[in-house]
TrEMBL record:
It comes from Streptomyces lucensis JCM 4490. It comes from the Bacteria. This is Tetratricopeptide repeat protein.
Length: 975
C-alpha cells in the first residue's frame, strides 16, 4: 500500500479505493485516508477525502455515517468557499440530494428537520444558479414516502417540468423513480414504458439498470409477461449480487422467488447475504428486506415446510416458521418507527400488504438449478377418491375404477387402490375381489406375481375361466420382465392352448383370449430382446412375429364402443416395428411405429402414442430426417400432455431443443431447454439430465446475445456437470460458452479462467483444434483483463498449437497479438518489432507454399493485415521516442509497411477495397507527419477516386471519403 506523503499520492489512493468492492473494508480505508489528508495540511486534500468518504458511505450498508462528513464539508464551504475547486463545488451541491434521501431513510430524523433541509437545499441551489429540478425531485420523494398523494402529484409534475441541468439525477435514476411511482399507483404498463430506455441499455449508471431490473419484476408478472420477468431476474440478480448497498433491490429478487414458486432459490439468495439480516445503517432497505423474508417464510410454512432449517440472523438456527415470526416482528417495528415519525400509516400499510401477497405464478421455471424443498407433486394429480366403507360409496368407487380401467384411462390403478382401501372390512363378491387383486398385482410389478395367481383363483370362482387364464398370463409376463423368460414361456404355452380351446367352445370371449395371446407375444418379444445371434435369433424373431400377427388377426376389424381392440392392435403394430428395426429395416420400423401411434390417437388414447412417436423421432434422426424427428417429438409432447412423467417430459423437451437448435431457431430451442431443466428438477434429476438441459440452455441464450442470463445458467450447470457423468466434451463446451458470455459482459478475468480450464481439459484430446482455439481465446481475455504477461504466455501456447496444426493464419494472429503486448511490456518497441517481423515471415512462407487459390487469397489478406498492423505498431512506438531522427526513421519504416499492405490488398480487387483504402489513408497521415503534404494529397485523391461510384448506403465508403476529404484539406493548408 502506497505511503501518503503528498497530494498526488492521496489522489491515487482515493481512486484506488473507489474501485474496491462496496463494504466496511472500503469505508475503513476511506476513514484512514481522511486522516492522511489532514496530515498534509492541504485544504483541498481534506475536501476531496471528505467527499470520498461521503461517497463510499452512501454506497454501502453504513449510509447513516454520511451526515458527519457532509456537515463538515458544508461548514468548510460556508467559511472558506475559495478552497473548493469547481469539481468539489459541484460535488458538494450534488450530494445535497443524498442528504435529503438519507434523512428520509432514517426514522430517527424528524420530518420537520427533513422539510427544513428541503428549504435549505432549494435556497442554496438558487444561489448557485441551479435548476429546481433536483429540489422538486427530492420534495416528491418526501411526499410519496409519507403518503401525501396530492403533494406528491404536484411535486412530480414540477419535477418533470423543471429544466434538466448538471445537478439533476442521471436519466437512468430519474426514470427509475418515475417508473416506480407509476407502478405504485397501479400503472404497470406505464412504468415499464418509462423504464424501457434503462432496461434496453440506452441509459445507465453505477446502480442502473440494477435497480430498474429489480423493480420491473412484479409489474411484468402482473401483466402476464413472465418470460421477461425471468430474464430480468437473471440479469438483475447477477448485477446486485456483490453490491452491498443494494439491499432493497436484492429484496425485490427474493420477493420475485416467493411469488413465482421458486422458494428454494429464495433461500439460496438469503444464504448469500447473511449480513442483510442485521445491518442497521439503512433502516428503510432493512424494512424492505425483512418484509420479503416474512413473505418467503410464510410461503414455505404454507407449503408444509414450516419446520425446515433456513438461513437467518447469525447466532442461532432458524426454522421457516420461527424466521417468519421474527422477520414480521422486525418489519412491523421498523414500519411503526417510520409511521410515528411521518404521522401517517403509509409505510406500515405498504409493508403489511407486501407481507400478505399471494403468488403471481404457480411455478416459473428459471433455468438455473432450483431444488424444491420437498418432493414435487405429480404433474397431474390422480382423481380424488375418498376412502369409504359404506355400501353405496364402495359401489361408486368400483364403478369408477371399472370405467377407468375398461377405457384405459390414466390413474386406473390409483382408483383400484382406493377401492382396495375402502373394501378392507367389507364382504365382496369373488369377481370384485378378483379385480382388486388383479390390479394390485399390476401396480406391484415383479412383487405382484403371487397376486396374479390369487386373482386367477377368484376369477375362476366367479365363473370366468378365460379371465383366470388372462391373469395367469399377465403373471407369466411379469416373470419374464424379471428375467425368467424360459419359465414364463413354458407357463404361457399351456395357457395359450387352454384359452384357444375355451374360445373355440365359446366358453370365453375375444377380450380374454386376446389378453393371453398378447401376453404370449410380449414374452416372445422379451426373448428376442435377449439378443440371441445366428439361427437361434432368427428363429426367435420369426416366432415372435407369428405371435404378434395372431394378436392382429384376433382383434383387427372389431368395431364397437370398447377401446381395447384398437389398443391391442396398436401395441401389436409397435411390436412389428421393433422386429423390423431388429431385422435392419429402419424405414419399415418408422412406418409401423407411426401407424401404431396413429391408431392410439384415433382410439382416443393419445398418451399411449408417446413411446412410439419417440421411436419415430429416433429413427428419423438416425436417417438424417431432422424435420421428421421434430414432428414426432412435437407430437409426443402433445399426445402425452400432463400424463408423461417429469423425467420423460424433460427428455422430450431436451431432444426437441437439440433438433430445433440444430436448424438455427435459438429462441424456441431455448424455451424447450428451459422446460427440460424445469422437469428434470421436478423429477429429482437436477444433477444429471438437468445439467445437460442447462448446458444447452446457456448455449442458446448466448446465441441470442442474452449474455447475463446465459452466464447465470451456465454457472448453474457447471455446478453439476462432470466428465464422469456427462463427458468432458460437455464440460469444455459449457466453460467455452461461459467464457464467451463473460467476455461480452466485460468480466475478462473470469472469462480467461473458464477458457483456460477448458483448454486444460482439451489438452488431452487427440484432436488439438479446440485446445488451440481455447488457448487463443484465453489469451484475448487475459489481455483485455490487463494481464499482459499471462496473455503473452497464452498466445505463445496457442501459437505452438497452431503451428503443429498447420494453421498459419492463426499462428500469425497470435504473433501479432504478442507484438502489441510486447510494445506495452518490458520487451518494448524492439521486442515488438521482432514479433511482428516473425509474423510477416510466417505468413510469407505460408503464402509461398500454398497451392489452393482460396487459401492463397486468404493468406494474402492476412499478410496485408500483418503489414498494416506492423505499420501501426511502428508509428505507435515512435510516440515514445525523444529524438527526432529516431521518430522520423520509425515513421518511414511504418510508411513502408503501409505501402506493402496497400499493394497486397490491391491484388484482392473489390474484396480488398476497404482494407486497401484504409492502408492508403494511414500512409497519407504518415506522409503528412513526415512533412510531405503532396504525398498525403495524392493518397487522399486516390481514395476519393476509388469510391467515385460508391453508393450512399455504404457506410465504410462514406467514412473513407470523409477522412480523405479531411486529409486533403489538411494537406492543402500545409502547401
Amino acid at each position: 500500500m502506497e505511503e501518503i506523503t503528498d497530494f498526488d499520492a492521496l489522489r491515487r489512493a482515493l481512486a484506488e479505493n473507489s474501485g474496491q468492492p462496496e463494504g466496511p473494508a472500503r469505508n475503513a480505508r476511506a476513514e484512514r485516508l481522511l486522516a492522511d489528508a489532514e496530515r498534509l495540511d492541504v485544504p483541498l486534500a481534506v475536501i476531496e477525502a471528505l467527499g470520498h468518504q461521503l461517497k463510499v458511505y452512501n454506497y454501502s450498508s453504513e449510509k447513516d455515517k454520511m451526515f458527519v462528513p457532509f456537515a463538515r464539508l458544508l461548514r468548510m464551504w460556508d467559511e472558506r468557499p475559495e478552497e473548493f475547486d469547481e469539481y468539489e463545488t459541484d460535488s458538494l451541491h450534488w450530494v445535497f440530494k443524498w442528504m435529503s434521501a438519507g434523512m428520509l431513510d432514517q426514522p430517527h430524523v424528524p420530518l420537520a428537520s427533513i422539510e427544513k433541509w428541503l428549504g435549505e437545499m432549494e435556497h442554496r441551489y438558487r444561489l448557485a444558479g441551479h435548476s429546481e429540478r433536483a429540489v422538486r425531485g427530492s420534495e416528491f420523494a418526501v411526499a410519496a414516502h409519507v403518503g401525501d398523494l396530492a403533494r406528491a402529484q404536484r411535486a412530480y409534475a414540477a419535477w418533470l417540468a423543471a429544466d434538466r441541468d448538471r445537478m439533476a439525477d442521471c436519466h437512468a435514476c430519474e426514470l427509475n423513480g418515475q417508473g416506480a411511482w407509476q407502478a405504485e399507483r397501479g400503472q404497470d404498463a406505464q412504468a415499464l414504458r418509462l423504464w424501457a430506455p434503462v432496461l434496453e441499455g440506452e441509459y445507465g449508471c453505477a446502480h442502473e439498470p440494477h435497480a430498474v431490473l429489480a423493480a420491473s419484476l412484479k409489474p411484468l408478472l402482473r401483466l402476464g409477461r413472465a418470460e421477461e420477468a425471468r430474464a430480468n431476474h437473471l440479469r438483475g440478480f447477477r448485477l446486485v449480487r456483490s453490491m452491498e448497498s443494494m439491499r432493497g433491490a436484492y429484496a425485490d429478487h427474493v420477493e420475485f422467488c416467493a411469488l413465482t414458486g421458486n422458494e428454494a432459490r429464495g433461500l439460496e439468495l438469503l444464504a448469500e447475504r447473511p449480513a442483510y439480516f442485521t445491518d442497521t445503517g439503512h433502516p428503510r432497505s432493512r424494512l424492505d428486506f425483512m418484509a420479503v423474508v416474512a413473505l418467503l417464510m410464510d410461503r414455505l410454512t404454507e407449503l408444509g415446510h414450516g419446520d425446515q432449517r433456513v438461513p437467518g440472523p447469525a447466532g442461532r438456527t432458524w426454522t421457516a416458521r420461527e424466521l417468519a415470526a421474527h422477520a414480521r416482528a422486525e418489519a412491523t417495528e421498523l414500519a411503526g418507527r417510520f409511521d410515528r415519525r411521518n404521522g401517517t400509516s403509509h409505510v406500515g400499510d405498504r409493508a403489511r400488504a407486501r407481507m400478505a401477497q399471494r403468488p403471481l405464478v404457480e411455478r416459473l421455471p428459471l433455468g438455473v438449478r432450483t431444488v424444491r424443498p420437498a418432493p414435487a407433486p405429480a404433474p397431474v394429480a390422480a382423481p380424488s377418491v375418498p376412502d369409504v366403507t359404506d355400501g353405496p360409496g364402495l359401489a361408486a368407487l368400483l364403478a369408477e375404477a371399472r370405467r377407468l380401467s375398461d377405457t384405459l384411462r390414466p390413474h386406473a390403478l390409483e382408483a383400484w387402490a382406493a377401492v382396495a382401501r375402502a373394501a378392507r372390512d367389507v364382504e365382496l363378491e369373488p369377481r370384485d375381489r378378483a379385480e382388486i387383486a388383479d390390479h394390485e398385482a399390476m401396480a406391484r410389478g415383479p412383487e405382484g406375481v403371487g397376486l396374479f395367481e390369487r386373482a386367477a383363483e377368484l376369477y375362476a370362482r366367479a365363473g370366468d375361466p378365460g379371465e383366470a387364464l388372462a391373469a395367469r398370463a399377465r403373471g407369466a409376463y411379469v416373470r419374464a420382465l424379471g428375467g425368467e423368460v424360459d419359465a414364463a414361456l413354458g407357463t404361457v404355452a399351456g395357457l395359450y392352448d387352454e384359452v384357444l380351446a375355451l374360445y373355440a367352445d365359446e366358453a370365453t370371449g375375444v377380450r380374454q383370449t386376446a389378453s393371453v395371446v398378447m401376453s404370449r407375444a410380449r414374452i416372445l418379444m422379451r426373448r428376442v430382446h435377449e439378443g440371441a445371434a445366428g439361427p437361434a435369433g432368427r428363429a426367435a424373431r420369426a416366432e415372435a412375429e407369428q405371435a404378434v400377427r395372431e394378436v392382429l388377426a384376433l382383434v383387427e376389424g372389431r368395431a364397437g364402443d370398447e377401446v381395447w381392440p384398437a389398443a391391442r392392435a396398436a401395441e401389436a403394430r409397435g411390436m412389428l416395428a421393433e422386429l423390423a428395426g431388429l431385422c435392419g429395416d429402419p424405414g419399415r420400423a418408422a412406418e409401423l411405429f407411426g401407424r401404431a401411434a396413429g391408431e392410439y390417437v384415433a382410439a382416443g388414447l393419445p398418451w399411449f402414442a408417446v413411446e412410439y412417436e419417440v421411436q419415430v423421432a429416433a429413427l428419423a434422426h438416425q436417417a438424417g430426417d431432422l424435420a421428421g424427428a421434430e414432428r414426432a417429438l412435437r407430437a409426443a409432447l402433445e399426445y402425452g400432455g400432463p400424463h408423461v412423467e417429469p423425467v420423460g417430459r424433460a427428455q422430450l423437451h431436451l431432444q426437441l431443443a437439440e433438433v430445433i437448435g440444430g436448424r438455427g431457431e435459438a429462441v424456441e430451442a431455448a424455451e424447450h431447454a428451459l422446460q427440460a431443466a424445469h422437469w428434470a428438477d421436478e423429477a429429482g434429476e437436477s444433477g444429471t439430465l438437468g445439467a445437460w438441459a442447462r448446458q444447452q440452455l446457456g448455449g442458446f441464450l448466448l446465441r441470442q446475445g442474452r449474455y447475463a442470463e446465459g452466464a447465470e445458467v451456465l454457472e448453474s450447470a457447471l455446478a453439476d456437470l462432470s466428465a464422469e457423468t456427462h463427458g468432458d466434451g460437455a464440460v469444455v463446451q459449457a466453460r467455452w460458452w461461459l467464457g464467451d458470455c463473460l467476455g461480452e459482459l466485460g468480466e475478462h478475468r473470469s472469462a480467461a479462467e473458464h477458457r483456460l480450464r477448458a483448454a486444460d481439459i482439451a489438452r488431452e484430446w487427440p484432436e488439438q483444434q479446440d485446445h488451440a482455439t481455447l488457448a487463443h481465446l484465453a489469451a484475448e481475455s487475459l489481455s483485455s483483463a490487463g494481464l499482459p504477461a499471462e496473455a503473452d504466455r497464452a498466445y505463445a501456447r496457442a501459437g505452438e498449437l497452431w503451428r503443429a496444426l498447420g494453421n498459419p493464419q492463426f499462428l500469425v494472429r497470435a504473433l501479432r497479438a504478442r507484438g502489441w503486448l510486447a510494445l506495452r511490456g518490458e520487451a518494448g518497441a524492439e521486442g515488438a518489432r521482432v514479433l511482428m517481423a516473425d509474423a510477416v515471415r510466417e505468413c510469407e512462407d505460408a503464402l509461398e507454399a500454398a497451392a489452393d487459390p482460396v487459401a492463397r487469397e486468404q493468406l494474402t489478406a492476412e499478410l496485408g493485415s500483418t503489414h498494416r498492423q506492423f505499420g501501426d505498431l511502428l508509428a505507435r512506438s515512435a510516440a515514445e521516442e525523444a529524438e527526432d531522427d529516431v521518430i522520423r526513421a520509425a515513421f518511414e519504416a511504418a510508411l513502408t509497411q503501409m505501402d506493402r499492405a496497400a499493394a497486397l490488398f490491391g491484388t484482392l480487387g473489390a474484396d480488398g477495397l476497404h482494407s486497401r483504402t484504409g492502408a492508403e489513408l494511414a500512409a497519407g497521415w504518415l506522409e503528412a507527419d513526415l512533412g510531405r503534404p503532396d504525398g498525403a494529397e495524392a493518397r487522399a485523391r486516390a481514395v476519393l477516386a476509388a469510391y467515385e461510384t460508391a453508393g450512399e448506403t455504404d457506410e465504410t465508403a462514406q467514412a473513407r471519403r470523409a477522412e480523405a476529404t479531411q486529409m486533403l484539406r489538411a494537406a492543402r493548408s500545409e502547401t
